[in-house]
Queue: 4 jobs
Job 1
Amino acid sequence: MTFYAPAEPAASRQASEWEADRPGDAALMRKLAAVPHAIRLNEPEVRAKVENTITAAEQAGGVPVFLINYMPGSDCQQVGAAGMAAYQEWLKGIAGQIGQAKAVVILEPASLVKLPGTKDCDLEGSPAQRYQDLRQAVQTLKGNPATAVYLDGSQDLWPGTAVMAERLIGAGIDRADGFFVNTAGYQRTQKAVAYGKALSACIGLQLSTGKKGCPAAATVDPATMPHFVVDTSRNGRGSWAPAKHYADPQTWCNPPGRGVGDRPTTETGEELADAYLWIARAGSSSGRCRRGTDGEKDPERGVVSPEAGLWWGDLALERAKNAVPPLR
């Protein structure tokens, strides 16, 4: 399977700005822009965007990857029934525009990490309601059998394999195509795959036994183990371990010296790993990284970082230069 590479205007614009004086850097930006990456759907009206993407992907002979990140309450605020009903109608519009075309949907990153009713979110909230909302979302999107839908699997140690397995079962992993791991994360592919396999086995065990927990010595029926995909957009150099001491190192926040990772592919060499994908944007800032200091500047970089989600040319170039394997 070949994934669709949508336009990356920010990287292309950056390349044009550097073309005359920095041709080598410009060339790297063009290579970065050419890599297939997820199309983010997080605005009230996205039907035209989805329709145009499906048309362009079919013409290019690739499969688009959509990142849906619009669920009310994802910021751990209370949500009324009307807001969630509107969200489900919004999803129906997306499903209608995808139609019978092939597509991959990454459904609501962090929706099972920042779970209502847990310490990572609103303790007064309801996990059961979040599970129901996700199950309904999966059902809507899977109305087209050619749409592959993956649920939030977080990453190793957050919140823990057995707990994550319980949450995925609650959210209807048996109705989805699998789960995704390492979204916007820096864990190397090998480590992320190992976590994905452990989580898959844990889910299979809990589905088979109806019990919580994941004893290491337990035997798991492979038929009960869900598949997964891995975000490799930022993990080429692995996680960052700061040499300096910070009150809050924020190792996830624009860590220096990182690089883009494996290119998107379905040829993973792992039976349970359906694909490596670029779910996050390689050149987007994580926000203001103060690392526990009082100033506005990132003490590691000596500059004020752009706000979260904004393109940062210098960060993109750093990750392109540090790509593993190199961008070609």
Job 2
Amino acid sequence: MTIPLGGATANQPAVAPVVAATLDISITNLRSQKGDVLVCLSTNPKHFPDCRKDSEARKLKVAATDASSISITDVAPGTYAVALIHDENANGKMDMRLFLPREGFGFSRNPKIGMGPPKFKSAQFTVGTDDAKHAVKMKYIL
């Protein structure tokens, strides 16, 4: 006779359930409700903050009118960084003018911005088994 033990049987070992958290991102300082907010949740320092070539990054597009609070579900424990773009003209990319961003941007942990985007390390945070919350303040240069 086989007695189930939390999904296991006498012939099969118990498997721990996969634990995933929800990451809640609150966004402040959007200068308009136009366009979209592009979200990149990455674990890869080589592809941060431009995660277009990061096949494992979580990428979301949220209407700017709905972007004051964004939830990303099923986030596995690990080290992450978030990059945001306020894509005001909804063309799916960061528009530049003379090497300066024409649209808003923001990063987890709100690192100081110098010449160029921050490194992964200055925006990284750890997600464990509990839900996590981060506040990102959008910045605009032009």
Job 3
Amino acid sequence: MPAGRVIVDAYVTRGVPIVTVSTAVAQAVAAAPHLASLSGELRRTMLHACADALAAAGREIVPTALEETGLTMARLRGELQRTTDQLRLLGDHAAQPWRRVSAGVAAGGGDVVTVPVPVGPVAVFAASNFPLAFGVSGGDTASALAAGCPVVVKAHPAQPRTGELLGQILARTLPDGAFSLVAGGPEVSLELVRAAGIRAVGFTGSLTGGRALMDAAAARPDPIPVYAEMGSLNPVLVLPGAAVPATVSALAAAVTGSAGQLCTKPGLVVTGSAAFADELADAVAAVPVHRMLTDGMAQAHEKWQAHASAAHRVVAGAGSPAPFAVVVNVDDLAGELLEEHFGPSVVIAVGAAEDVPSRLEGSLTASVYADDSDREAARALLPGLLARAGRIVWNGVPTGVAVCDAMQHGGPWPATSASWSTSVGTEAIERFRRPVALQGLPAELLP
């Protein structure tokens, strides 16, 4: 395959050519017909080649990401494996035939055949908290390519060298124009979304950032969809039979893992046991301090700690950014206590769980810990949770998101902008292709 071009802004210093957003989009538009015409098998080959290239460069990728993020070596090695597995899974899915046929229903007895058509060039915004699996080489990039769409990826400014390295690898592997990388501030983001050639957007980040892109996309003369993953509280309801030490350990690890910088981090735990609340708060506070991804994120975490301490009981560890728990009564749940806060913190609410779901906004996940004695109470909670979450977890933490056919990684606002879509799993491809019904076409003309 001919090499693509990596497009970066001035802060990258490793000699890659600097090309404007308009040039990147023009290249993607030029490449779109070729990519759309590729068979599913060729798309599979293309994505498997990307996975192989990334795996081969692991000894350079992982240390670079380690230096820029502060995440652990084990975490980043696992994330690289997830990234390559995801590319291969989506490539395999792209190779499977997809069409629906209703025989003989058209006028004159013809068939109606529905086939998927790529939407065209996709703008992808890399996330900071998963620099590989949700970054330049992540699921939005992989699913758009699997759908037959070129991508223009905006690297995250917190990881310029990691983003550039991943971009170089993908650009060398993919057809010319199929992949481009841009970088810069908010003005570059808006320019990219407003570019006439861009036909869809994939975003993982803050609610403020996602809403800005949505507004820009809606204000275009031809509005385009923005598939944005944003803020998620991920509530956990611990029923009496499951208020045990193993649950404390699991939740403390989920709250503080990767310094609490996961989109699926439990931000709220509800329990009827004050003793369980105290044990969980102490367990969270006992976790050693871990560097956060950026100074801005660490400052926001410390600001939230100071604000919460002024109004509520806070159990905090030593150091900075300190892990901490805010312990309140269920009746106090409102406002900031029901919002996502990035970092190793959690709100623990003591009281009955049955009224909590109705107070919640949309989330990626909701979890229930229960034993057999709690089944009826859990049954009563499920309708409210189903209305507010994209994934329900039973007796487990929500932080692990399996890359598989059945996964749903999405949820009602403000978790995402499109609750019916997913950014993980094979269904993620459907965001970037649309069904077209072909009525009565001769068989030899069908794609």
Job 4
Amino acid sequence: MLKLSGSKLQLDGFKCEKGMVATQEIDLSPFQGQTVRVYLDNNLKLVVNPMYDCYWHLCEMELPHPQADTIIDEESGEEIRFEPKPLDLDKIDIRHFDLPKEA
């Protein structure tokens, strides 16, 4: 039901007591370096770290801090930063939570 693809978490659609949950995905890149809790809200939409009551807690994970290639300029000794590396969800542990029995 939950799949990882690059930096995105994908949820397959399914039917539950609240109705039909659409297939959805959410990009987790903005949450790098944080504990991320993914919920299905009362409107059956994926939300990350909500500040309100939701229908179901789907999963949680610790995302790594953003990574970037860096080098040191030999003349000035200054650090030069390159493009950030994309978030790789293949190397993180995800704690899944079962859906309600009626799902």
